[in-house]
Amino acid sequence: MSSLHPRAGRRCHNAVNPLHATVYFSPDHARELALIGVEDTSAAYFAGRAAPLGAVGPGTVSAAFYNFSHELIARHLPAVWDTASPAAVLDARTRAVDATLRRLLGDDTVSSPEMAEAARLALTATEACTRHARPLYSAHADLPVPGEPHLALWHAATLLREHRGDGHLAALLSAGLDPLEALVSHTATGKGMSPRWILASRGWRRTDWEAASGRLRERGLLDREGGLTEAGTALREELEEHTDRLDLAPYQHLGADGVARLTELGRGFVLTATAAGAFPDGLAGKG
Known about the structure:
Layout: H1 8-21, H2 27-35, H3 41-50, H4 58-65, H5 70-76, H6 80-83, H7 86-105, H8 107-110, H9 113-126, H10 135-141, H11 149-175, H12 179-188, H13 195-201, H14 206-218, H15 230-246, H16 249-254, H17 256-275
Helix pairs in contact: 1-11, 1-17, 2-3, 2-7, 4-5, 9-11, 9-17, 10-11, 11-15, 12-14
């Protein structure tokens, strides 16, 4: 068996995570949440992703989600739970995942041997995930594994995403980046969400963005044009390497060959989903 490349886990995450993300950009998710009374799109997102934590308030979600404005979260939580219980939200989310993957990938792909293989591989990787200091992962790990392969793959992709994400928050804290500084510096890499999308969806104001940019310039991480300095580039890479170290166990457990195969399958599914319009225009970039 070949040895695992140091960045193989990151590459696998990058190939599988977009499949998890499709549901939160999907009209199917908005529709299913609206059918149980949650009509505001921000409320639907917070409820859909936080439901495994139970009927939590804004403080818990601000801590676990990290990069959203607490003010925005508090507009919707805990009030959303008076409209729909966490259990009802989870049922609606599952219906949305089913509808989204069938619409984006097609029934033939959903029922294919490759889908079942990817689900098995991803679930095997999750066997080595750890709960301590990982609230979003741990809450999702309490949920039952769905029986249908495409739903099982989405569940496993979500576990892997939240496991890495929880570890990434520890890395951000270690680097001394607050929520908006993390977003600004990630956007400056050219791989993060666009400022326009962040301001529209995360609850921050343009003045907040400029203030965070100023703090990063004072630390020598951002230049006058908003690009990363050499020190900023080094910090962002160390953040990813720190996250890789905290997220190594699932991919070591799966093994190099399994990781390579899951990466291949995940990329294929995501390319198909993207071509079918899974993600909005203007989501990523510096503009």
